[in-house]
Amino acid sequence: MKKSIFLFGLFLALATSSYAQKFAFIDMDYILKNISTYETANQQLELTSKKWQAEVDKGQQELQKLYKSYQSESVFLSAEQKTKRENEIVAKEKALQDLKKKYFGSDGELFKKREALIKPIQDEIYTAVKEIATARGYQVVVDRASASSVIFASPTIDISNEVLTKLGYSK
Q1: Residue 165: CB partners within 8 Å, gap ≥ 6?
Q2: How far apart are CA 96 and CA 88, in angstroms?
Q3: pTM, to two decimals
Q4: For the chain, how are helix, strand and coil distributed in percent, rounded to 5?
């Protein structure tokens, strides 16, 4: 009885070890650098961001001028004029904060534009990785660029070039 249980356990151990999981790695930074539409989208986002930042900077300069003007003239202003100027500065400051939030906030225009330009590329990469992983029987595909705990990965299991080829960007 002990012998048959031992043999069954040995058989079970051998059977489960034959179903070892297959892993592969991709380097998302490498893939994205080799996709021209991603580079174009990034440049477009950068230009838009700089344009909006210049607009915010201009508003900041105007606000500083108003504040400096108020400080230098405050001794000569009546209480009513001081209150009016302070309200004007506060209103300008609030408008500037609203502008920053509109452009750069978590639901801002830059975020929406990034979603519109970059997400389709990421989805395309995901689909290609999924197809390759399914075809080759990989249970796990890890992004080497974002996996900080990966110290070394053999280049033989890196499928980044296959993903690029599948997307039509042969390397």
Answers
A1: 171
A2: 12
A3: 0.69
A4: 75, 5, 20
